[in-house]
Amino acid sequence: MRTQKPSVLFVCVHNAGRSQMAAGWLRELAGDRVEVRSAGSMPAEQINPVAVEAMREVGIDITAEQPKILTTEAVQDSDAVITMGCGDACPYFPGKRYEDWKLEDPAGQGIDAVRPIRDEIKRRVEALLGELLR
Predict the structure, then answer these.
(1) Cβ of 119: how many Cβ atoms within 10 Å?
(2) Burial class of residue 123 (count of CB atoms within 10 Å of its CB; 0-12, 13-18, 19+)
(3) DSSP character at residue 14
(4) Strand 35-40 vs strand 80-84: parallel, antiparallel, or unpaired?
């Protein structure tokens, strides 16, 4: 039986949209059963306000989050590394689970374009959570 909770790192280029929404969904759906991290290979100054708005619509507040730089330590400390368009920038360690989620970038898009991205991220996070907690 597993004694420590699984940890997931979500990575996108700016850590301002997709990875922040994914981290918000996993925190919401998993509670304290999973350790959640997010980072970017070239972090933005702030989270995409449209991503914040899209998550607020479903009752998840990500306003306190800040884009963070991707570090080797964050990858080493995670069981699963989910990349979203920056797979080449992510360090590779044998024995870790890596997935690359092909998702449209919400940067520069309006709320009507970001909602389906948010909903697809939720679907993928739910599937990931089911596998992690099996």
Answers:
(1) 14
(2) exposed
(3) S
(4) unpaired
How many angstroms separate the CA atoms of 60 and 54, rounded? 9
Q: Report how far Cα 93 is from the mean position of its chain's Cα atoms.
A: 19
Q: Which residues are catalytic?
A: 12, 86, 90
Going across the sheet that includes 35-40, the strands are 35-40, 7-12, 80-84, 97-100
101-127 pLDDT, tens per residue?
999 999 999 999 999 999 999 999 999
C-alpha closest to that of 128 among 81, 88, 84 = 81
**DSSP assignments along 73-121, one per residue:** HHHHT-SEEEEES-GGGS---TTSEEEE------TT--HHHHHHHHHHH
Task: State the Cα–Cα distance between residues 34 and 123, nearest whole angstrom.
Answer: 17
Other C-beta atoms lying within 10 Å of the C-beta of residue 112: 9
Q: For 80-94, write each residue's pLDDT tens digit.
A: 999 997 656 667 777
**Core vs surface per residue 25-60: b (16+ CB within 10 A) or e:** bbbbbbeeebbbbbbbbebbeebbebbbebbeeeeb
